[in-house]
Amino acid sequence: MTPLDAATAPDLLRLCAVPVLGWAAVRDVRTRRIPSTLWIPLALLGAVLLVWDGLLARGVSSTIWQYEFLVPAAISLGFVVPFAYLCWWVGGFGAADGKALLVLALLFPTVPQYAVGTWSLPVATAPLGAFSFTVLTNAVLVALVIPLVLAVHNAASGRFTRLMFVGRPVAWDRVPTTHGKLLSAPDEDAGGGLDLDALRMYLRWRGLTLAQLRERADRARDPATLPAEPNSPTDGAVGARPRTDGAGGLEDAADSHEYDDPWGAAAFLDDIDGTAYGTTPAELREGLETLAVRDRVWISPGLPFLVPLFLGLVIALVYGDVLLGTLL
């Protein structure tokens, strides 16, 4: 049995997307940074395979070409692609999530077929055959399960709180290398919302480590201690080398507790290019106050949608449409 007996050449080539998407999902979890160039060859491959499939279907019969190629391709390109762009535009997806879904809409407009021994995969297919839509619905179902997994993990550790479905506790010294959003407020485990990438940008801009800020929090609140020539904030990535040359100014600040701009939060956001991931001065101040006084804080991991999307693709290739299989 040759590979072409197990699947058509286009369907075999589509499997190249699986390890690439898996690598991207792992990298997104670890760094929250995916190179945009990753999606270009996959998009080009998808476009070539789309034309190839169309020619193969046209060569079989006009009925096959119309109902098994044109209709699912129209749904994939006419619904999934605009949906991915809309979700990115409104902030529901990250840029990498949206690009990945766009690529999958090109790569998997119709249902691929694979013969594994006596098995024909996928097992459960949607009537309209728009495979990228099946991947999307599978991914949404996987994303809905993740909070339950998080809650079970917290419950097993004896952590029963209203945040157990959306977050996990982290020691303060792990925050600089953690991704997600701060959920803890200074006095309780609710509130905040500070993006930790924005926190890293702020610390690098000031030339401080989180340990230095905690040690001299009374001084760091004073905007007079802001550096005359701030450092580049970078983009908040964990791997960027931190700057620690701003601690000297903390020793010379006047002792006061009331400032127009505590922590220099507004000055930081006014000085940098962009919006620091939508962070407001109030969010930054509350987050800094929390990290200055608490030894453990709750963090929402904010798992990238690339992870459910990858799992949704694998499930779709092996089983098919989970929602359809459940209902039927």
UniProtKB/TrEMBL annotation:
GO terms for cellular component: plasma membrane. Residues 218-255 are annotated as: Disordered. InterPro entries: Preflagellin_Peptidase (IPR052218), Preflagellin_peptidase_C (IPR009655), Prepilin_IV_endopep_pep (IPR000045). PANTHER family: PREFLAGELLIN PEPTIDASE. The chain crosses the membrane at residues 38-57, 69-88, 100-116, 128-152, 297-319. It comes from the Archaea. It is found in: Cell membrane. Pfam families: Arc_PepC_II (PF06847), Peptidase_A24 (PF01478). It is a multi-pass membrane protein. This is Leader peptidase family protein. The keyword Endoplasmic reticulum does not apply. Keywords: Cell membrane, Membrane, Transmembrane, Transmembrane helix. Residues 282-322 form the Preflagellin peptidase C-terminal domain. The keyword Membrane applies. Its main location: membrane. Residues 18-143 form the Prepilin type IV endopeptidase peptidase domain. GO terms for molecular function: aspartic-type endopeptidase activity.
